[in-house]
């Protein structure tokens, strides 16, 4: 089934630890995105990539880094997790950069203690 | 003031009712108006979208945009229990930057 696979589904992490959330898509979409979703707030863009080899900062990039070595994979890394990074993280993709039609993964629920 | 405002709900209605979900926004540059549906513990999925003002119908769903009042609506006719989800509005500008509302949780009671 074509789509986006995220891993892990859920994770509890001690503050200060490093964590990488994985995202893989099989639709050959050019653009990929990472969002966080918190109760009472809309989805907020963390980082994006318009094409393999390029990345950009979104609305809330601090404390996060990404890489885009190939078309399919777009991992999100928390170098030193803090409790305020407790959230649900969604990876998304679109056929072209900036397109409004996004395909989302099922999310990774992260708790930082 | 948030750029996009949605009543978080929950909005609970009986099966078969007409549902009205609404968003207000502040940025007059928005040109695209997206509605995504999100089931519990799932990622959002595109439901429908409109460009500029007016109505767009897709089956039981109608999206309506009034740019003069900066008001976006989604109507669901003959609502079903399977429509129970959180509905996210997301207007976008000419650069395709989407600004997301926090979503309205809808519950359809059988």
Fill in the keyword field for this structure:
heterodimer; A: 113 residues; mainly beta; 7-stranded mixed β-sheet; 4-stranded antiparallel β-sheet; B: 110 residues; 5-stranded antiparallel β-sheet; 5-stranded mixed β-sheet; 10 strands; globular
Structure description:
With 113 residues, chain A is mostly beta strands. In chain A, 0% of the residues lie in helices and 45% in strands. In chain A, the strands form two sheets. In chain A, strands 2, 4, 5, 6, 9, 10 and 11 form a seven-stranded mixed β-sheet that branches. In chain A, strands 1-3-8-7 form a four-stranded antiparallel β-sheet, with no helix packed on it. In chain A, a hairpin with a 6-residue loop joins strand 4 and strand 5. The N and C termini of chain A lie far apart (35 Å). In chain B, a hairpin with a 4-residue loop joins strand 7 and strand 8. In chain B, the strands form two sheets. Chain B has a five-stranded antiparallel β-sheet, with no helix packed on it. Chain B has a five-stranded mixed β-sheet with strand order 2-10-9-4-5, with no helix packed on it. Chain B is globular, with a radius of gyration of 13 Å. Chain B has 110 residues and is mainly β. Chains A and B meet through loops of A and strand 4, strand 5 and strand 9 of B.
What is Rg of chain A? Answer: 13 Å
Mean pLDDT across every amino acid position of chain B = 93
Beta-strand share of residues of chain A: over 45%
Q: Helix proportion of residues of chain A, in percent?
A: under 10%
Structural class of chain B: mainly beta
DSSP strand count of chain B? 10
- Runs of chain A in which pLDDT lies below 50 for 5 or more consecutive residues are none
Strand order of the largest sheet of chain B: 1-3-8-7-6
Biggest beta sheet attributes of chain B: 5 strands, antiparallel
What is the terminal separation of chain B in angstroms? Answer: 37 Å
Mean pLDDT of chain A: 95
Weakly predicted, low-confidence segments of chain B: none
By oligomeric state, this entry counts as heterodimer
Helix-strand topology string of chain A: EEEEEEEEEEE
Order of helices and strands of chain B: EEEEEEEEEE
* CA radius of gyration of chain B: 13 Å
């Amino acid at each position: 089934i074509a789509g986006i696979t995220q891993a892990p589904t859920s994770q509890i992490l001690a503050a200060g630890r490093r964590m990488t959330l994985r995202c893989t898509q099989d639709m050959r979409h050019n653009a990929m995105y990472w969002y966080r979703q918190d109760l009472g707030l809309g989805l907020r863009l963390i980082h994006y990539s318009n094409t393999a080899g390029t990345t950009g900062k979104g609305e809330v990039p601090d404390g996060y880094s990404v890489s885009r070595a190939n078309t399919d994979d777009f991992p999100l890394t928390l170098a030193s997790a803090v409790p305020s990074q407790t959230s649900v993280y969604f990876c998304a993709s679109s056929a072209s950069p900036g397109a409004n039609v996004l395909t989302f993964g099922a999310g990774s629920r992260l708790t930082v203690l | 003031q948030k750029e996009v405002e949605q009543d978080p709900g929950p909005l609970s209605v009986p099966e078969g009712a007409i549902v009205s979900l609404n968003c207000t926004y502040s940025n007059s540059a928005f040109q695209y108006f997206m509605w995504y549906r999100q089931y519990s513990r799932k990622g959002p999925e595109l439901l429908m979208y409109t460009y500029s003002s007016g109505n767009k119908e897709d089956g039981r769903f109608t999206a309506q945009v009034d740019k003069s009042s900066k008001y976006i609506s989604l109507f669901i006719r003959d609502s079903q229990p399977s429509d129970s989800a959180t509905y996210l509005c997301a207007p976008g500008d000419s650069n395709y930057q989407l600004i997301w509302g926090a979503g309205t949780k809808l519950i359809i009671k059988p």
